[in-house]
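Work Package 4 report. The design task specified in the project plan requires that, given a folded chain encoded as structure tokens, an amino acid be chosen for each position. We show below one input record used in the internal validation round.
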């Protein structure tokens, strides 16, 4: 319980999201969703590296198309998107709508609760 409270506090401080929004998210569900829908292309954690997609550590506040170890599409490199809770939500919902011409091969995720869970999980990787 102590670790969960500390995690919520850290997420609130570092992401600027209200505690209630983070508390409503299910980190375990986000982890499971990442494992089934994202991990075949993206990595997170201490040994994260680019693979079929870029690694996602520290994605919040990062300019899209900016990690040096991945070859992004021109659309992503020139998109001027900075990854935030809102831009990631829009991208996960419909990648091609936020960044037309992206080479990400993902149709999107329409369930807002699942997206919230996934974003909360990604926020734990600085």
């Amino acid at each position: 319980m102590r670790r969960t409270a500390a995690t919520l506090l850290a997420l609130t401080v570092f992401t600027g999201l209200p505690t209630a929004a983070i508390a409503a998210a299910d980190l375990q569900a986000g982890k499971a969703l990442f494992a089934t829908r994202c991990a075949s292309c993206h990595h997170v954690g201490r040994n994260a590296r680019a693979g079929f997609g870029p690694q996602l550590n520290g994605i919040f506040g990062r300019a899209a198309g900016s990690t040096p170890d991945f070859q992004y599409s021109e659309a992503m490199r020139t998109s001027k998107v900075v990854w935030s809770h809102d831009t990631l939500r829009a991208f996960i919902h419909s990648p091609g709508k936020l960044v037309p011409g992206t080479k990400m091969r993902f149709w999107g995720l329409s369930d807002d609760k699942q997206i919230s869970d996934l974003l909360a999980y990604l926020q734990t990787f600085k």
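The radius of gyration is 14 Å. Validation will be extended to a larger panel in the next phase.
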